[in-house]
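Why do we bother with a discrete structure alphabet at all? Because it lets us treat a fold like text: something you can write down, compare, and reason about line by line. To make this less abstract, here is a complete entry for Peptide chain release factor 1. Read it the way you would read a sentence in a foreign language you are learning: slowly, and without expecting to understand everything at once.
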Amino acid sequence: MNLEPQFDKVLYRHDEVRAQLSSGEGMDSQTIQRLSKELSELDPVVTAIVAFRKAREDMVQAAEMMNDPDMKDLAEEEFYALKERLPALEREVQIMLLPKDEADEKNAIIEVRAGTGGEEAALFAAELFRMYERYASLHGWRFEVMDVNDTGIGGVKEASATITGRNVFARLKFESGVHRVQRVPATESQGRIHTSAATVAIMPEAEEVDIQLNDSELRFDVYRSQGSGGQSVNTTDSAVRVTHLPTGLAVACQQEKSQHKNKATALKLLRARLYERERSAKDAERAAARKSQVGSGDRSERIRTYNFPQGRVTDHRINMTLYKIDAVMSGDALDEMVEALVAADQAERLAEME
């Protein structure tokens, strides 16, 4: 694959943007901010291109020097060292040149729902929600609970949160799908292993500029918040359900005692779901052509199994198994899975470019 035209294009654009910022002629603050952001994104790519080209030139020079008897040994050593290093440098540049997912830099909204398996599924859903909360804490991200529908005995029917930080969606987007658990429930007297499931959805947080909601297309219903077992949480109609009439999508929130806060949270979640719906529609054609669909984000796809008796976690998309289930559930070892999924997605997209 000849990358030279792309290299030249990046270097030309880098010089162009830098020149524009240096002159500053006729630019408002928004333009300066946009160009500054573009320059900061181009800087590491240019550095990688320059390093790759220099290593390639040095290798050519070392090959020529190998003809000199006095320099042969030293030149051979440098030649083979550069020859071994060059593929890694080229791959680094290739990865940087891959098309960016516009949502990668966004914050994320996570939804975890109990699937098949009754109360055991609800308990597992609660554990997954805590796993992502701890994982966010380890990365210095802010984890803000939006809504929780609990069962009253430690489980959750569904829970959602906003995760704010650097490249949150880029790191978490491969977590969407069905997570299966195999273990002996605490209520199981015969010691039999049960299989349950929970669904995780990771959505980029949508700004108003991404998704505009028209009041005429929304229906709001207010009702009294309910706790587990149908017990009333408060005596006011503070819970809010908002329905997007064109799509039928509905979101409910009862976490706060304030109807205003619940309405704002419900709209935030609705906006994220509509944005993800649009993204999925755009990606559907491309995803259909991909083999492993690492990044398909299909909520119905079984992506991972957590087997507690054997202490293992297996990601079925990349056939990766870690025998450290406690470290994964505490968030400490989840990065090993995340890094492998990111690498697999990059390899898949690089293959598409060839």
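What the structure line is telling us, in plain words: The first helix runs from residue 4 to 23. The chain has eight helices and eleven strands.
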